[in-house]
Write a structure and sequence with these properties.
Strand order of the largest sheet: 4-3-1-2-5
Strand content: 5-15%
Shape: globular
Bound molecules: glutathione
Number of domains: 2
Structural class: alpha/beta
CATH class of the largest domain: Mainly Alpha
Number of helices: 10
CATH topology of the largest domain: Glutathione S-transferase Yfyf (Class Pi), Chain A, domain 2
Length: about 250
């Protein structure tokens, strides 16, 4: 099989990587994947991703960091089918939801839960900040879910009958929260729970979440092969540096 013209660096445990892979699935874009964990990136990875973050999109002489920049580039270069609503007001709202997902939601579900409870002990071999986790669970996550409940539709997806950028930005981090014990309580946040159920079962996120789960339970050395077994084309070169190292903006 010939190598796709795009390489995506990053593994599907990252909600930001699943955002991009879901958009690629909707638009039928083939990518070769280098499924590294950012904390294990090599020196070349530091050069092309100065924050040592995933995802990174490489296409010819273009290298892009940041899932929002990548998503926008994909939408501009492969507009069909669009992952944005038609109405300019709705487009702006969709971009706000992406921003909220990438900042506040990931702050609480990603950095304060998953990073503390899974990445620090397992990858970085560092101590968990239990107070931070407790505050996130008791105060910050409920506040975040309260807000999200106000933007959720009764049926369908955030902007209609097809899932798009806003849905694929928000939904992935809930898997990371779930694997460390935090679920959306459907009694307290019924619209959020209903929407999440639909995105996780009726869109490309279903398969991506399965792959993310498989990734988490596979030894590092076997992870690329596992991705290939799930039908992903592997990049010819890996940026895995073989050792754990924090990025310049990883929180404590
Ligand atoms: N704003 C960035 C955030 C990407 C990000 O934080 N990725 C995480 C993985 S989920 C990462 O690479 N973290 C490594 C680090 O910050 O050191 C985006 O949208 O791509």
């Amino acid at each position: 099989m010939s190598q796709p013209s795009v390489t995506l660096i990053g593994n599907p445990v990252s909600p930001y990587v699943r955002k991009i892979l879901a958009i690629c699935a909707v638009k039928g874009i083939e990518v070769a994947i280098d499924p590294i964990t950012p904390f294990r990136g090599d020196d070349t990875f530091s050069r092309i991703s100065p924050l040592r973050r995933i995802p990174v999109w490489i296409e010819g002489d273009l290298t892009l960091c940041d899932s929002s920049i990548i998503a926008q580039y994909i939408e501009e270069t492969r507009p069909e089918p669009s992952v944005l609503p038609v109405d300019p007001k709705d487009r702006a709202k969709a971009r706000w939801i992406e921003e909220y997902a990438d900042t506040r939601l990931f702050d609480v579900l990603g950095w304060k839960l998953f990073f503390q409870l899974a990445i620090k002990p397992r990858v970085l071999k560092e101590e968990i900040d239990r107070d931070l986790v407790e505050k996130a669970r008791v105060v910050e996550i409920p506040e975040t879910f309260d807000y999200l409940e106000t933007v959720m539709p009764e049926t369908g997806f955030l902007f209609g009958e097809a899932a798009g950028l806003a849905d694929f930005s928000l939904a992935p981090a809930f898997l990371n929260a779930r694997v460390v014990g935090t679920e959306v309580d459907a009694g307290r946040w019924p619209k959020l729970a209903g929407w999440l159920g639909r995105v996780e079962s009726d869109t490309p996120l279903k398969k991506l979440n399965d792959v993310a789960m498989a990734f988490m339970t596979t030894k590092v050395a076997d992870q690329p092969e596992m991705m290939a077994e799930h039908g992903y084309v592997l990049a010819e070169r890996s940026h895995d540096g073989g050792r754990a190292m924090r990025g310049p903006m990883s929180p404590v």
